[in-house]
Amino acid sequence: MTQPAVNLTPAARRSDEILDPGSLMRIKALELRAKIVVQGFMHGLHRSPYHGFSVEFSEYRQYSPGDDPRYLDWKLYARSDRHYIKRFEDETNLRCHLAVDSSRSMSYGSLGYTKADYAATLAGTLAYFLSLQHDAVGLVRFDERLDDILPPHYRPGQLRRLMLALERPSAGRGTDVAEPLRQFAEYVSRRGIVVILSDCLAELDGLETALGTLRSRGQDVILFQILDPAETSFDFEESLLFEDLETGRDLYVDPQQVRPGYLEKLEAHNQSVRATCDKLGIEYFPLTTNQPLDGALHDFLQARMRRGRRVSRRGV
C-alpha cells in the first residue's frame, strides 16, 4: 500500500508574525530561535487536518500489508482514522549530519542579518526537531576545508554542543564546496542523511563527483541553497563600491549596466547546481533569507517522507 502524500500547507503551520525571519533574528539565543520555529511548526500541525501525522512521528509508521497486526495502535487509529504500527528501534533511529557553509560569502546580508545567521538558525531548527525525534544529529562546518566536526549522537548535552558550535564565528574566507564534501565523504562511514546548507557561490568543478561519492556510500543528501534577496534580484539603483567578501577586492559597479549579465550568470549557475542534484537523486531546495524557516523544515520532512517511501518500496 502506497503511503498517501501529506499536504502540510504553510497556512496551517505558522503564525507569520512569530516566524518571520526578521523577528526571529532579533532573538540572540540560537537555541531559542530554533525552539520557536519547531513549536510554531508543530502547533500548525495540531491545528491542521493532519495533526495526527507528526505527533507520533518518531514512534509510529503507517501500516503496510504484511505488517504484524498485533502492533496496530487502535487508540491512535481512533484519533487519526488511519492505521499505524509501533516502529522498532532500528527503524526509528536516524543519523543526520548537518554540513554548514561558514565561508566569508555567507556573511553577506541586506536584511539586518546574514546568510550565515539564517543558515545557523535553519541548522539549529533541524537539530532541535531531530533531537525531539530521538535521532542522532551531528555537525560539520566548512569553507575551504572541514571544520568543527561533531559526530552525530543522541545523548544528553549533544544539542547544546551543536548549538554552541553553530554560534561560533568563522574565520573562513574562500568557499570550495567540492573539496570539503569530498573530504567529508571519506570521513563519514555509517549510512544516514547529510543536509548541506550553503550559498553554493563557488566554482562547481568537482561538485558532482563529491556529491556522487556521498550518494555511492549510501548517504541520502539534501541541499539547501541559501541566498540573500539582494543577490537574486540585484535591484541596486545607484553605482556602488562592492567588496568581494572572500578576496577583499573592491569593485566599482553600475548596477543598471551589469544587472542583466549578472542575473543570467547567476541563473545558469543555480541551474547547474539543480541539474547536478537531479542527476544524483539529491533533494534540492533554493531558499532566500526572507523566507520563513518553518517552510524549510516542512521541505526537510517531505524529503524524509519520500525517502521512507523509497525504502519501503525497496523492501517490498
Automatic annotation (TrEMBL):
It holds the Pfam family DUF58. Residues 59-270 form the DUF58 domain. It comes from the Bacteria. This is VWA domain containing CoxE-like protein.
